[in-house]
Amino acid sequence: MIEDSGIGIKNPSRVFIKNNILFVDDQEVKNSIGESYEFSKGELNMLKIYISKDQKIPENSYFILGDNIYNSTDSRKFGAISAKNIWGKFEINK
Fold this sequence. Notes:
The protein has two helices and six strands. It is an alpha+beta fold.
């Protein structure tokens, strides 16, 4: 299940972890209330599987993050999702 307040990252220029915190395109990723996405050792291993040496998520794939940092089953647990396996749509609230 993907939460309606989640975050999807598709083909950013650069994805990396610094001090166990996720950065995309040189900006720290935070949820809707300003909390940083921290990665455990196991989650870091999952991220390394799906991000290539050039620090990009594979083309036509998404790395999905739930808004509840401490209790979301998201790409930190199961990895990147191919676009062909996503049913529904994402909307950006402004």
